[in-house]
Amino acid sequence: MKKTVLVTAVGSFSAETVIQGYKNMGYRVLGCDIYPAEWIVASMEVERFFQAPYASDNEAYLLFLERVCRENKVDYLVPLTDVEVDAVNDWRDTAAKLGVVICLSSVRAVGLCRDKGRLAEFLENQKTCRIIPTKRLTEVMDTEADTGYELLYYPVVLKPDNGRSSQGLTIVEDADQMRMIMSRMRIMTDFYLVQPKIPGYVITVDVVRNPATRQVACLPRRELLRTPNGAGTSVYVFRDENLEKVCAAVANALDICGCVNFEFIEESAGNWYFMECNPRFSGGVAFSCMAGYDMVRNHMRCFTRERLDEPGEIRNQYLAKRYTEYCMKIE
Q: What is the DSSP letter of 43?
């Protein structure tokens, strides 16, 4: 009998690749999204589609998941967006009682990755990679109180410590702009981080780690064009042994399980600053699959305790995404 996978947020960038990957492996694939089926092309690709409440309404969302999983005998749950990752990270006991495997890293690892301030502190102590110097905004306010904000080296980046898809990220060019922003958001400063703005390309690395077999596989790409919320649409996939060693060390330190994505700023050739870990499939996971490494299949192997595929020879290549129109419903 086929095992059943429930994929959330099937309207998101990674959904088509994830759904097709599980179908290719022989799973029965169900899907859900906050929007109706007629708005979501991927709703046609799953065996059953369910419209979900917003995951930010934690109680309603988890009751929805419990009902769908129970009624449809779901074996595996694959959340695709950060807000859903946050919701299901605390739902593990209920999922276990239902016999559902949540295809994520541990509660500790996910919690650490979703708190950018704690993550920066952790990796700085681990000394596994070069990180962007990071302070909490409250620290800056305390140390700069008598001088305004002139001692900061501008431009700087302000961002929420649990932000997603570049939401809430602001570039501040000078002390006057910082003062103006601070006058509007003083009650929120506990949740914001400040970093120097480092120029360069964003490097996204799809990383899959199997703790059972102690294997890590990585595939980097330079993001040449990106949407405003940080999804690459034109990329250059490449191999770099040193970068991949750094990613493996970070994945081991965080005790990652399955496929996640790391983001770096490439200041110059071979000079990378770690920015963040998104503990889920990247929006551009299709690029890795197209380039020659099936991240979806190998992600699943981490939860079925099978060995990962070896990356083999993957050629450096330019890849780009385009959009296609579909007729969803005629009335």
A: G
Q: Are residues 268 and 145 in the same domain?
A: no
pLDDT in tens, 168-208: 778 888 878 887 777 776 556 667 888 888 999 999 999 99
Residue at 42 is within a domain: yes
The pTM of this model reads 0.90
Helix (H) / strand (E) element for 113: namely helix 107-113
Distance CA 231, CA 297 (A): 22
CA–CA distances in Å: residue 21 to residues 25, 289, 293: 6, 9, 12
The string of pLDDT tens digits covering residues 244-282 is: 999 999 999 999 999 999 999 999 888 999 999 999 999
Please say whether the beta carbons of 285 and 152 come within 8 A.
Answer: no
What's the CATH number where 295 sits? Answer: 3.30.470.20
Are 123 and 251 within one domain?
yes
Q: Which amino acid is at 288?
A: S
Burial class (CB in 10 A: 0-12, 13-18, 19+), 112: buried
Rounded Cα gap, residues 56 and 59, in angstroms: 9
